[in-house]
Amino acid sequence: MEAQKPTAAAKPAQKLNVHEGGSKVRGIKNAFLVIVACFIVAVCLFIFWFGADSNFDEAGHPQNIIGTIYKGGFIVPILQTLFLTVIVLSVERWIALSSAKGKGNISKFVASVKECLKKNDIAGAQALCKKQKGSVAAVVSAALVNYEEMDKNTILTKEQKVANLQKAVEEATALEMPALQQNLPIVATLTTLGTLVGLLGTVMGMIKSFQALAASGAPDSTELSTGISEALINTAFGIATGAFAVISYNFYTNKIDNLTYAIDEIGFSIVQTFTATH
Questions:
Q1: pLDDT: is 246 or 15 the higher one?
Q2: Which has more pLDDT, 145 or 222?
Q3: pTM surpassing 0.90?
């Protein structure tokens, strides 16, 4: 039973280090509030800007593209909500991942910590973590705390110490990953949802256009072209939303992959250094 005490004591110190010297990744916790706020803004824009009297003639026909957008119907504010949501969450992820990255260059930080590990300068590596901050630094700091504890431990075997150190890196990484990936699933959903809602608006607009032609009893090229242009506005909004969401999702996924790679690289170096020097 005594052999388990150092392992149990290592975990609280590790978690405390991640909390106190952690990444402090900032982000919007409740994306639903973002969607509601974007919907309110979209409805206000639809009613007071796109629907302004100056955008239409006396007969109610649109005089510019803004008036044509208004004629797209109730689907337009929904599409605008989706588009604004993608923009807001993209900006939010930029701020969050910038704070997760830390103050300095990640590659230089990883190289500097490796140099400290080669010299067995754990205090120097911890100083670099405090200076760098961010998710990578938080994971490294937690691993170094466990490194020192395993270094002083005289009860566990070398294999047990290495396993404990690997577990410390994995647990610290697991604590950081949710904050990095937060809200990205919503952006991924909007890549498809925006396009589908846009197509729905287009189909509904086309149905209305042909219904108007059937009711008039005679083909009217002006009415038909106006109806089609109004319907295609929804397609344009949907495609723009989907395209922007895809770009945003892939961009931030790549940034997270780079951070994860840096964490894995330096975590492996810490474990290998411990193995080689003990």
A1: 246
A2: 145
A3: no
Indicate the pLDDT class of residue 218, thresholds 50, 70 and 90: low
Residue type at position 171: E
- Domain carrying residue 84: 2-277
Q: Is 80 exceeded by the pLDDT of residue 7?
A: no
Q: Name the more confident of 208 and 53.
A: 53
Amino acid at 180: L
Total of domains in the chain: 1
Query: What SS3 string covers the chain?
Result: CHHHHHHHHHHHHHHHHHHHCCCCCCCCCCHHHHHHHHHHHHHHHHHHHHCCHHHECCCCCECCHHHHHHCCCCHHHHHHHHHHHHHHHHHHHHHHHHHHHCCCCHHHHHHHHHHHHHCCCHHHHHHHHHHHCHHHHHHHHHHHHHHHHHHHCCCCCHHHHHHHHHHHHHHHHHHHHHHHHCCHHHHHHHHHHHHHHHHHHHHHHHHHHHHHHHHHCCCCHHHHHHHHHHHHHHHHHHHHHHHHHHHHHHHHHHHHHHHHHHHHHHHHHHHHHHHHHC
